[in-house]
Amino acid sequence: MENDSNNIHQAKLVIAPAKSAISTILSNLIIQSCHRALQQSTIFTIALSGGSLPTFLQELPDAFSKANIDPQWDKWHVLLADERCVPSSHEDSNLGAIRTHFTNGVGIPPSQIYGIDETLLGSSEDVAASYQENVVKYLLDMKKSTDDDGKIDCALLGFGPDGHTCSLFPNHKLLSEQTRLVASIDDSPKPPPSRITLTLPFLNKCCRQIIFCGAGESKRPIIQAVFTNVEKANNNVVKHDDSVLGAKVALVALCHPAPYPCGMVHGCGDDDSLIWLVDEDACS
Fold this sequence. Notes:
Blueprint: E1 2-3, E2 8-16, H1 22-40, E3 44-48, H2 60-66, E4 76-80, E5 82-84, H3 94-101, E6 113-114, H4 124-146, E7 154-157, E8 182-185, E9 195-198, H5 200-205, E10 210-214, H6 220-226, H7 230-235, E11 239-240, E12 248-253, E13 274-279, H8 280-283
Parallel strand pairs: 2-13, 3-4, 3-7, 4-6, 7-10, 10-13
Antiparallel strand pairs: 1-2, 2-12, 5-9, 8-9, 11-12
């Protein structure tokens, strides 16, 4: 959702009444994305962040059942939005969290859940290069062969109280990356220091839909800084939308220039390409 005439990007802000409602609303958004993708293609591709975000996915299988929609798990391909350069068995592994809270309980073929090449862990740069070539480009090529869009269907991202998303941190040189789709970082301000991450060129050019998800008062300063009109949006709701189970929905404009990395992610500019799902505490 983009206004090309003045380079203003817009997002759909979905405000859940409480943190406890986020999982249900998020599940419904993912169901819509999956259903839309599988109407046009033979696969559904989704990029997932780690941290606390995978816990919001625990209701997804039941949500598909309640909606009487077959998720067709065998057609899902899951890639990582970022990953710490540790084995998947390590407590810091994003893939480990995604397996624990989501994929271990569904029928996605293990070969379609794409972790890093752990034989390359001695070099984060090698890990990133391998992930770009063997996972990201592989999936983009697969999408190009199955539909006209040629983009990853959905990226589910979190954002920190410092405004970072994926492993893109404030004032870091990776924010200036122009060409790579996956990059390495060895000086992360959050441990562990060595990671790989999807880059802004990937997020803004190669994703059909991006969903940010966050809750709590600690996220409120980020929401207020990233959008130009969030106070008005909270009071002047566009609609109470049944498609997001009664949550308040408003259109908001991203600040330009963006004050934080998460605000630099604007998607491809199509309708519903950028959604921020937060609770009242993050938005009031």
